[in-house]
Amino acid sequence: MADLLVTGGAGFIGGNFVHYWREKYPDDAITVLDKLTYAGNRETIEGVADVDLVVGDICDTALVTGLLEDRGIDTIVHFAAESHVDRSISAPDEFIETNVIGTHSLLKAARDVWLEKGSGQPHRFHHVSTDEVYGSLGPNDPAFSETTQYQPNSPYSASKAGSDHLVRAYHHTFGLEVTTSNCSNNYGPYQYPEKLIPLFLLNALSGKPLPIYGDGMNVRDWLHVEDHCRGIEAVLKNGKPGETYNIGGGQELPNLIVIEEICRGVDAIFAADPSLAQRYPDAPAAKGQPSDTLKTFVTDRKGHDRRYAIDETKAREEIGYVPSRDFPTGFADTLRWYLDNEDWWRAVLACGLVAK
Known about the structure:
Layout: E1 3-7, H1 12-24, E2 29-34, H2 42-45, E3 51-55, H3 61-70, E4 75-78, H4 85-90, H5 92-116, E5 124-130, H6 155-174, E6 178-183, E7 185-187, H7 196-206, E8 210-213, E9 219-224, H8 225-238, E10 244-247, E11 252-254, H9 255-272, H10 275-279, E12 295-298, H11 313-319, H12 327-340, H13 342-351
Parallel strand pairs: 1-2, 1-4, 2-3, 4-5, 5-6, 6-10, 7-9, 8-12
Antiparallel strand pairs: 9-11
């Protein structure tokens, strides 16, 4: 039995991890620490059995230290982060505060409780990071591996790179048992609708434009969030302390292809279920028109990375991770989830930028 502290566990990836872990490990204790910013929602983990939500900031080192001591925490799974590149361009300070200073706060508390006071008790600090720390690839460059040089290009990716280096340093300097995973673009249930897939899906349902940066040919590797949770599980169970593992979906696609899949999926499900036209009368599909008529090309994002790709050889060979979903299957599941959980995303949209 493990005692987990899941930071950012009311957010998108962290919330899915809480659902996943509780189902797989019903006897483990789970404490969620979440600040409940615009992207964190109580409803995301509502109904998950025996999960204690603590509303607080990872930068509050005294709070984290108290949780580790009082609850006998032996495993931290650290998701809490500011993660939207556009927001990092307009407001980078928040990214440095949460992603760098917040991660350091957690590391200090873990070192204090597990090493200084705990005399080296068995523990694990798992840090969830991104493939964006590696920079941008050319069309013929090999995919990112764990030895690829860091070349972050946005304030977001730079802040995550800084946190990665701190985690590594606490292992090599102090002996803290850490692991890091760098994942590709996640999608799936409970994703805040500022990211491409939920934004374009909900815009298609409401008849709003689908804003495509530049020429739409920026390439990403797409990873269903449940596969990401399986990858983190594999790192926690089989990963070696001090090591980094790249977790990918094996689905390298240009944004335009992803957007076309969204439009096709929406059109097909409206054709199969006439009741959707009554629920979403503003959708082009409700009027028998293709959703791709909403596509609108806009000025490219500043410093927009052209291509990301993940080489997951190490994760496959050393910890047994293999993604289970191709993109069409994963997106079909995601589309169905958003249609079945309209109350969740409408409540999120209604809150806007107001912290809950």
